[in-house]
Specification:
single chain, binds magnesium ion, D-amino Acid Aminotransferase, Chain A, domain 1, 3 domains, Rossmann fold, alpha+beta, globular, binds adenosine-5'-diphosphate, about 35% helix
Length: about 300
């Protein structure tokens, strides 16, 4: 079988994960196929949707794979470009390709606001958060939280996530956000000690946990945190699997902070990079993701 790996042509994000996936596909006797989201052509007619693939002037080939792993849709600065890429992936699904994670689920999980709403609705513990376009509301939120973490709705690897404890400094930043039509995402800073947990869930099952120990408050491996193997307690397991289930994901990396008041889900990464997890635990999520995809395709 040919199994697609869906991502942008322009930049290879996290090449180690792509290599792990390709190896996992080959070890199972199948063939990995590059599907570049920015190389697709979607043809829509009455009763038919077709998707073909060509980089530049290449001869377009129909995309013929039963399944594909969605890894990245690139960094879009244009609203329509992001939407186009989401719906191009959706067109693949309509053509019968099982996209893992399904693209609309990927879209929601990767959006810090949308995901938090769903997790909160399901009764899962999330940090108190205010999202608004009103800089006065942002000011009030920072005053209330005292220490606040400011984030982008879509972001990764800790980039652009910053801490503020002075509402007036925050107000300046929020007024600049307002000038560029950027929403304001303010979250209460959680006292989580020296790190937090990352639990990897595939096919409804938690594979393991690492503790991401950091010298600073950000625990992204990309920001220098070192993952250590951690015990997957029943509580961590339950929280992580529920979070992934609530968001409708086939796999995900769940970040969980432990505070004096208990655990909080910081986020669920629908296309997490697993190099740190793999090194710390010896578990290769790519193998589990591929087994789960093949199981889905057999049904
Ligand atoms: N509310 C918070 N309180 C304390 N630390 C936080 C909070 N939110 C995020 N962090 C820290 O910042 C890091 C990056 O934030 P996160 O929301 O995970 O964004 P990203 O998508 O960039 O990883 C987290 O891994 C965590 O260590
Ligand atoms: Mg994170």
């Amino acid at each position: 079988m040919r199994i697609g790996i869906l991502r942008p042509y322009e930049v290879e994000f996290n090449p180690g994960d792509i290599l792990d996936l390709k190896n996992a596909i080959e070890r199972r006797g199948h063939r990995p196929v590059d599907i570049y989201i920015d190389a697709l052509e979607v043809q829509i007619e009455t009763g038919s949707v077709r998707v073909s693939h060509a980089v530049g002037r290449e001869v377009p080939q129909d995309v013929r794979v039963p399944g594909a792993i969605l890894r990245h849709l690139g960094i879009s600065r244009d609203f329509e470009q992001l939407l186009y890429r989401v719906w191009a992936a959706r067109a693949l699904e309509v053509c019968g390709v099982y996209v893992m994670n399904p693209v609309t689920r990927w879209l929601i999980a990767g959006d810090k606001m949308a995901a938090l709403i769903e997790l909160s609705r399901a009764g899962l513990p999330v940090p108190p958060t205010v999202v608004t376009e009103n800089m006065f509301a942002g000011y009030r939120a920072v005053s209330k939280f005292r220490r606040a973490v400011i984030k982008q709705l879509r972001g990764a690897m800790g980039y652009g996530v910053f801490l503020v404890d002075d509402p007036d400094v925050a107000f300046h930043i929020f007024s600049m956000f307002a000038n560029i039509n950027k929403p304001i995402y303010v979250q209460k800073f959680l006292e989580k000690g020296a790190g937090d947990y990352r639990v990897v869930v595939v096919g409804g099952r938690a594979l393991g946990a690492v503790y991401r120990r950091a010298a600073i408050w950000k625990t992204n491996v990309a920001q220098g945190a070192v993952p250590e193997p951690a015990r997957l307690t029943p509580q961590l397991e339950e929280l992580a699997t529920r979070a992934v289930e609530v968001l409708g994901l086939d796999y995900g990396g769940v970040d969980i902070a432990e505070t004096r008041d208990g655990y909080y889900i910081l986020e669920v990464n629908p296309t997490m990079s697993w190099q740190g997890f793999k090194a710390a635990t010896g578990i290769n999520p790519a193998d589990h993701i591929m087994d789960y995809l093949l199981e889905k395709l057999r049904k």
